[in-house]
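2.7 Reproducibility. Because tokenized structures are sensitive to small changes in the input, we list the exact sequence used for 6-phospho-beta-glucosidase, including any N-terminal residues retained from the expression construct. No trimming or masking was applied before prediction.
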Amino acid sequence: MNNIVFPSDFLWGGAIAANQAEGAYLADGKGISTVDVIPHGKNRLPMKLGRIEDISIKPDEYYPSHEAINFYQNYKEDIALLAEMGFKVFRVSIAWARIFPNGDEKTPNQKGIEFYLNVFKECQKYGIEPLVTLCHFDVPIHLVEKYGSWRNRALINLFEKYATTCFKAFKGLVTYWLTFNEINILLHSPFSGAGLVFKAGDNEDQIKYQAAHNQLVASALVTKIAHEIDPNNQIGCMLAGGNFYPATCKPEDVMKSIEKDRENLFFIDIQVRGYYPSYAKRLFEEKNISLHTEPEDFEVLKHTVDFVSFSYYASRCASADMNDKTTSEANVVKSIKNPYITQSEWGWGIDPLGLRITMNTLYDRYQKPLFLVENGLGAIDEIDKNGAINDEYRIDYLRQHIVQMHEAIKDGVILLGFTTWGCIDLVSASTGEMSKRYGFIYVDKDDKGNGTLKRTPKASFYWYKDVIQSNGRSLSDMSGTKNT
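Resulting structure tokens (single pass, no recycling of outputs):
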């Protein structure tokens, strides 16, 4: 039996995002953002990939973000439930279009600032530390239409103004900040990650890496500003994590796995080290990329993050001959199927040991504190005849991952905390479904938008409460490390 106990100051909690939870998409002066034009159904993926040029809201489409789970109206009830579980930290994001509805106004929307002040004060009431993401797949649509979104350097200064407004408005209430959520996803889902829309004949790699450069400069710039406004601020970057395993020990497969890892770690290499990695030169040459940069960009990039945050849902597999026919459509980051692990109902690989591998890789590479800010199981939950939701499968998934998290800490990795993804049921970013549930708290709503929005704790709610209360000790009797 392993004796599991986490550091005394470990931050246990959960995570949501504004665009998947708040709803109230036009309330109190909020503007339309990129997620508000991404529908549920057959057009969702092409829209996320930047393949649909008409980004207007259509009357015959259903847009899940418009109501979501109405956290905007229910935040007090929801935070009280999280406090009942004993949360130490609650990861949320700010909707840029709630603060600057068009993104380029001279002055912010005070109603938007008031909403987030109220949310953070509610957290403070329960002793919960907010962990706040400035840009979580959320760009004002006006900036897409007028500037072309992040392909345009104009967004650097607009983001600087937005971030500075937030740092000043919420000083003393928020000290943990993330700049861009899963910044590497802009390579895989360009409209979601950076508001990019492509036209026929575009050099898409050129546009994506130009947008990446602009985001990286913006991230470093606001990291500098955050430290100036409040020296207590801790700023992190955020990676969609998960190592690529080589499909075999064939050297070409091993090299492909290195290349695929670099593709994702490229962003974090810059945000942590403060300069472009040496392998970028060959990458840009082979993809015919010529970045538009300014001399001051490279000085700005030297303002590096304090910690590395990441999501982990699954490991990935790579081979030298991987292509669209051999990779899974289940996740936006393409991977060939790993025969040694099982899959979720949505085809995502379940690999707890992969979390330990990822944590060791990141810590060995960067020597910065880590923060696991997303991990969880999307599954269909059923309410039994007594009104209970017995989600033992979610408990088993989280238990195995937390055990491996603890093993990584024993390996010497510094981990600040853990926020499970979708601690309350919300709209799935990948599919737009409500039926793909992650939460400890069930929300009565279906994939077509029907339901009362009533909140009901699941079995996992009480299990996680015990984990937090015991600082992990409650897992000691069930700490098997099987990789299922």
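Residues 204-229 form the longest helix (26 residues).
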